[in-house]
Every structure is written in C-alpha cells, then in structure tokens.
Amino acid sequence: MQCKMEDIAMLHGNMEDIAGETSTTNDNETNTDLSSLAKNQSAQAFFGPENPKEPYLDGIKYNCVAPGKRFQSMFNLSGGEKIVAALALLFVIHSFQPAPFFVLDEIDVALDNTNIGKVASYIRDKTSSLQTIVISLKEEFYSHADALIGICPDISECLESKMLMLDLTTYPTYIN
C-alpha cells in the first residue's frame, strides 16, 4: 500500500509541474496574441488554474487588461474588449491544438470600426496557417475578405436556397 501512495504522490507532483509549465507558456503566448490583436503592447492577459494546488481538478481563470486600463474581471470588460480577449485565447489554443479551419459568427458585433480593422488584419495575417470563415453583416469587416458568399432563396418549384460567391481577389484595389 505504501508503494501505491508514493506513486500517487509522484504523479500528483508531475501533474503540478506540467500544469505550471503549461500555464507559464500559455500566459506568454496569450500576452503575445492579445498585444498583436489589440495592436498595443500594453495589453496583457492572465491565464491560470482556479485551484493552483490541484490544477487538474477545477477550471481556469482568464483575465485581460485592456490597453490603457486597469485590471478588471472579465465580467466588467466592454463587449468589444471581451471579444478581443476571447479571440486572443482562441488563437493561443489554436497554436497548441491546431484546427484546420475556424467558423467565426459575427465576432464584430460589439467592435467599433477601429477594432474591426485590427481584428480583420490579425485574422488575415493568420490565414497562411489557418482557413477562416467569418460571418459578418458589417462592411468594415467583410471588405477585408478574400471572397464573399451569400445565401438567398431560389424561387423555383420547391423552396430551396442558392449560394452566390464573389471572389474579391480579382479586385486587388479594393482589398484592404
């Protein structure tokens, strides 16, 4: 029985070491992505376990400091700040566990025009290693796209939907 308890204690220590290393790496990566997304080096993110003693038992805490602001809980950030913080975390997770593509639905809804441009250019920079489908109703966002896809009703014998696509890469003067 003593051998088993020692094994469990050693495993517990290894889990703490791994969780600590992952947390430190994620903090650095998140800060880099948040600073890149916000186009401001003063943006910071804090990422860690809710229970540092046993990090594998509980969830994670994730908080961000928006440029030029003091530390606040995620609940107190504006809608646009929450979106930028969530996107930074999404791209950090992607750097550790890559997905072949993202579908982002109206991520620009709470962003002002300045931040729409920052987020759109950040996503454009990431497209070399990631395919992204973004659903947006704002021209400020979709004007940065490679293609526009529209869905509309097809009036025929039965009600169907029809897809329309416009390749914007053939119009290089209009791509931002």
TrEMBL record:
Keywords from the named record: Cell cycle, Cell division, Mitosis, Nucleus
GO CC annotation: cohesin complex; nucleus
Descriptive protein name: RecF/RecN/SMC N-terminal domain-containing protein
Top-level division of the source organism's lineage: Eukaryota
Single GO MF annotation: DNA binding
Any Pfam family hit: SMC_N
UniProt subcellular location: Nucleus
GO biological process terms, semicolon-separated: cell division; sister chromatid cohesion
Database matches in Gene3D superfamilies: P-loop containing nucleotide triphosphate hydrolases (3.40.50.300)
Principal location class: nucleus
Domain RecF/RecN/SMC N-terminal, chain residue ranges per copy: 46-152
Keyword Ligase: no
